[in-house]
C-alpha cells in the first residue's frame, strides 16, 4: 500500500461516467459523455453530496468526458469547491495520480476524476488488492466513486458509490 505524506483527511477517486464511442476521425481525448453517462454522472454526484461527501478540491483530467463528469460534481456542490483540470491525468500512471494527490496537501479532501485502468490501480495501491476485490469484484465501473479516509498509517475504503 502507498503512503501519502502528509495525507488529506479524505480522498475521492471518481472514474468518468460512460462515454460515447469515438466517431470516425475523432480523438479519444475528445469523446463526450453519452446520455447514459450524463445520467450516471448526475446520479453518483447527487448520492455523494447527499451522504455529505464534499471534496474541497476536484482534480480532473482535461479529457472531455472527465471534465463533464467533474462539472457534474461541481454543480452538485453548488460550486463550493475548487475545480482544476490537469493534463497529466489523461495518460497518467498510478504514480502520477498518487503524486498529484500527495501534492495537494494540506487540502482536507481531494477528488481525482480520471480514467481506468489507472483509477483502479491507484485504489489498489492505496487499500491493497484484497480490499479492492472485496469492494469491486467486477472492476471499477464508469461513474464509480471510491471514498477513502486516512487512519493511522493506512487508507480505508469508507464507501463505494455507483450510479
Automatic annotation (TrEMBL):
It holds the Pfam family His_Phos_1. CDD domains: HP_PGM_like. It comes from the Bacteria. The keyword Hydrolase applies. The keyword Hydrolase applies. SMART domains: PGAM. Keywords: Hydrolase. GO terms for molecular function: hydrolase activity. Gene3D superfamilies: Phosphoglycerate mutase-like. Its EC number is 3.1.3.-. This is Phosphohistidine phosphatase. It comes from Neorhizobium huautlense. The lineage of its organism: Bacteria, Pseudomonadati, Pseudomonadota, Alphaproteobacteria, Hyphomicrobiales.
Amino acid at each position: 500500500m502507498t503512503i501519502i505524506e502528509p495525507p488529506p483527511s479524505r480522498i475521492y477517486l471518481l472514474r468518468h461516467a460512460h462515454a460515447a464511442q469515438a466517431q470516425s476521425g475523432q480523438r479519444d481525448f475528445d469523446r463526450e459523455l453519452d446520455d447514459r453517462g450524463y445520467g450516471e454522472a448526475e446520479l453518483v454526484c447527487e448520492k455523494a453530496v447527499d451522504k455529505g461527501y464534499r471534496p474541497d478540491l476536484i482534480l480532473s483530467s482535461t479529457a472531455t468526458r472527465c471534465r463533464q463528469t467533474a462539472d457534474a460534481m461541481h454543480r452538485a456542490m453548488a460550486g463550493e469547491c475548487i475545480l482544476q483540470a490537469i493534463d497529466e491525468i489523461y495518460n497518467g500512471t498510478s504514480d502520477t495520480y498518487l503524486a498529484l494527490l500527495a501534492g495537494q496537501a494540506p487540502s482536507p479532501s481531494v477528488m481525482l476524476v480520471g480514467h481506468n485502468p489507472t483509477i483502479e490501480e491507484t485504489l489498489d495501491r492505496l487499500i491493497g488488492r484484497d480490499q479492492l476485490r472485496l469492494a469491486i469484484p467486477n472492476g471499477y465501473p464508469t461513474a464509480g466513486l471510491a471514498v477513502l479516509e486516512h487512519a493511522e498509517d493506512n487508507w480505508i475504503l469508507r464507501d463505494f458509490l455507483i450510479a
